[in-house]
Design goal:
- The protein has 8 helices and 10 strands.
- By secondary structure, it is an alpha/beta fold.
- It has one domain: Rossmann fold (3-Layer(aba) Sandwich), CATH 3.40.50.300.
- The strands form 2 sheets. Strands 6-7-8-3-9-10 form a 6-stranded mixed sheet, sandwiched between helices. Strands 2-1-4-5 form a 4-stranded antiparallel sheet, with helices on one face.
- The structure holds adenosine-5'-diphosphate (ADP).
- Adenosine-5'-diphosphate binds next to β2 and α1.
Length: 258
Amino acid sequence: MSPGAAPDEVPLIRLRGITKTFGSGTAAFQALKGVDLDIAAGEFVAVMGPSGSGKSTVMNLLGCLDVPSSGRYAFQGVEVQRLSRDQRARLRRRHLGFVFQGFNLLARTSAQENVELPLLYRGEGAAQRSAAARDALAQVGLSGWERHTPAELSGGQQQRVAIARAIVTRPTVLLADEPTGNLDSARSHEIMALLAALNAQRGITVLMVTHEPDMAAYAHRLVHFRDGRIERDERNPHPVALGPRDADALLHSDAEGP
Ligand code: ADP
């Protein structure tokens, strides 16, 4: 039994017997070899493991960016493999936010416009987009930086913009693949404090791939992959505690304003 959910509850996410094979014939490679995983709403989970162990593959499946070769994936009890491509895309847009190592912001586009983009795809009107993006930027401590382009922002600030873009749609789950991989230690801890605050205060479920124990230490649960399987799934009894400054400064202040 994984520590994710009580046996009689429908977990937010349930994987059963998930396999993923890339290629075919003699070139076939089984990246996931039977993964069972339950994640309850509101968890903050770090996915760890050596390079090539299947972490990104499982995140892509969870994010509905790819489909498994076999096994079952249920999201809020809905069997994802039975959904059409369009329905999967809708699930993704409605429930999932993504944060990547490389920020993936549009270069000559302001922070505000970058954050508005997912709402533009949803067909929301200009006034609504503008207000929601401002609010999301404020939540990551970037009030006053709306007009700046990525080149005018530090790496840590760019990742904050990327997080604002991920939360502007009010997702159920934030999927973060090595979100601090391109940041120095101080900025990395700021980003982790921000993710932890979004989890604790907004109730966003956070699934984060990291190979850095210092960053995983913020999560409440550590899932270790090896060779395409879950090797260990454990509670973190003492996640890094957020100071009052972290939560306030990160979610409400414009202390970093230009
Ligand atoms: P991790 O994120 O733990 O480093 P990945 O999930 O990226 O590992 O990859 C697991 C294994 O699957 C690796 O051996 C990788 O080379 C292989 N793999 C991943 N994606 C593909 C792909 N599109 N085609 C072929 N092999 C792949």
